[in-house]
């Protein structure tokens, strides 16, 4: 029981660290966007980046 408790504690701490890193990145990018005058350009670039990542996943979905 002690080992399981320890492992779950480690896993929870790792998840919390990852969430805080993601939140920090989102917050910093949001602050940058709000400070910039060219908000639409930054948003368009972000959308393009996500679009470039999404297409490779489509063939994998069809294989499943």
From TrEMBL:
<protein>
    <submittedName>
        <fullName>Uncharacterized protein</fullName>
    </submittedName>
</protein>
């Amino acid at each position: 029981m002690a080992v399981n408790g320890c492992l779950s504690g480690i896993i929870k701490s790792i998840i919390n660290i990852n969430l805080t890193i993601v939140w920090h990145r989102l917050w910093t990018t949001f602050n940058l966007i709000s400070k910039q005058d060219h908000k639409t350009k930054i948003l368009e670039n972000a959308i393009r980046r996500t679009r470039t990542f999404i297409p490779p996943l489509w063939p994998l979905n069809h294989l499943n």
